[in-house]
Specification:
single chain; 326 residues; mainly beta; Neuraminidase; 2 domains; five-stranded mixed sheet
């Protein structure tokens, strides 16, 4: 099997046997009616945490941290570690309505503007920190949820409007590849998540089907239905943890961090970087494409800034613990 796309994923094609398997990966699920993120594994809620507000998600991507996009234009989503501790990242939605789900290939993030009549319910694309959010393409059917499939570099998108619930597969340019019906009653099928562990798709129920998780193979065969005790009933965002980009990037190691007061005399409560952190920036073909050193100020959560210097390590595939330069 040849890996295509940008996420490093080791995939055993167990779903080809059309047999249900244990859900060994952690599935991150955002409730819409309550600002709660649930983490489900093997049919159980293994932990949960509160998001800062209703507009903090439910659209999310999960790598080494969880990054939410603001639900509606003018609102911001926040960044959390995988245990739900609030971090410094804040991601503004500039103009779009009802960004209910998210997907990432490690370099790009996607979401769906489910109630955005101005864009005809478009699929949106941004960089890995939700910057530059813009229309990518507009499917013929109204978009509800989205996930990225690293096996074939494609997007799986749910549609639950008009009594014709379905899952559709698109390439990243918006060309339809395949589709299958899911027929979940009463508005199920807002979110969708691709599991890299077994190459299957998980669709959470919502509203009339709330509390259920439905596992499908890529041909549309329902493999199993799971009902984790304590799971919220209006899950609109769903993602498994993805890997990092597989294209080479400039990689730096932080050599100096100075907590420097801003014009108001504030200093950082916590700097985004510490000495020894790896920082990844732009794509590169060789180390010659990278600056030898980075110097700059990085914003902190309280509005202050810390001064950071970092030295070039090389041009390579970023490791999972490589932070993105903000």
């Amino acid at each position: 099997m040849r890996m295509r796309g940008r996420i490093v994923a080791s995939v055993a094609l167990l779903a080809a046997t059309a047999a249900a398997t244990a859900q060994t990966s952690e599935l991150y699920l955002n409730d819409w009616s309550n600002p709660i993120c649930y983490v489900v594994q093997n049919g159980q809620v293994i932990r949960q945490f509160n998001r800062t507000s209703f507009s903090d998600g439910p659209g999310l991507v999960v790598q080494d941290t969880i990054k939410h996009i603001g639900q509606d234009g003018g609102t911001s989503g926040r960044e959390y570690d995988l245990n739900g501790n609030l971090l410094s990242g804040s991601y503004l939605n500039p103009a779009f309505t009802s960004c209910y789900d998210g997907a990432t290939d490690g370099d790009r993030n996607w979401t769906v503007a489910h109630n955005d009549f101005n864009t005809n319910f478009a699929v949106l694309v941004a960089d890995a920190d939700w910057g530059g959010l813009a229309v990518a393409f507009v499917p013929a059917n109204r978009s509800s949820g989205i996930t990225y499939d690293a096996v074939n570099n494609s997007l799986w998108i749910t549609n639950n409007v008009g009594g014709s619930d379905r899952v559709q597969q698109f390439d990243t340019s918006g060309n339809l590849i395949s589709e299958f019906p899911i027929n979940l009653q009463s508005g199920g099928g807002y979110g969708i998540a691709w599991d890299p562990a077994d190459d299957t798709l998980w669709v959470p129920g919502a509203f009339g089907t709330g509390g259920n998780l439905y596992q499908y193979d890529k041909s549309g065969n329902l493999l199993q239905t799971v009902s984790p005790p304590g799971l919220g009933t209006q899950i609109l965002g769903a993602e498994f943890q993805a890997g990092g980009p597989t294209t080479p990037h400039c990689i730096y190691q932080v050599s100096k961090v100075k907590n420097k007061a801003n014009n108001c005399g504030l200093v950082c409560d916590v700097c985004p970087y510490v000495r020894g952190d790896l920082v990844c920036t732009t794509e590169c073909g060789s180390p010659n494409d990278c600056a030898a050193r980075l110097r700059g100020f990085n914003a902190c959560r309280n509005g202050a800034a810390c001064k950071v210097s970092a030295d070039l390590v090389g041009c390579d595939i970023p490791p999972r613990n490589c932070k993105r330069c903000r």
